[in-house]
Specification:
The chain is α+β, with helices and mostly antiparallel strands and about 100 residues long. About 15% of the residues lie in helices and about 35% in strands.
């Protein structure tokens, strides 16, 4: 019984997230950092879903966030310190891992 309880316990991490957007929706160059935050998540997929929800539900958007809703083409950086940095671009319907060469 004890071993089955331990198997159900998942490890939650605090991940550093940076949001990058272009000045105008639909552009493919000129990404700029628009916001930094942290999120508690089980993994990258969980973090991406939480960030999408936070920045697309008006009641959840932080008061100091001045950019547009998260939308297709926007890039998120998940920085895990020594474990590395991973960039994701929002595509229609899902997040796709990308290189960070397009962001400043």
């Amino acid at each position: 019984m004890v071993s089955s309880i331990l198997l159900l316990k998942k490890r939650v991490s605090v991940l550093n997230i940076t949001v990058f957007q272009t000045p105008f929706f639909g552009e493919e160059k000129g990404y700029e950092k628009v916001y930094e935050t942290t999120v508690k998540a089980f993994n990258h997929k969980d973090a991406l879903e939480k960030i999408f929800r936070i920045f697309n539900v008006p009641d959840l958007i932080p008061n100091d966030y001045k950019a547009r809703f998260i939308s297709t083409g926007d890039i998120l950086l998940i920085d895990e310190g020594k474990r590395g940095k991973t960039y994701y671009r929002l595509q229609p319907g899902n997040w796709e891992k990308v290189s960070g060469e397009n962001v400043r």
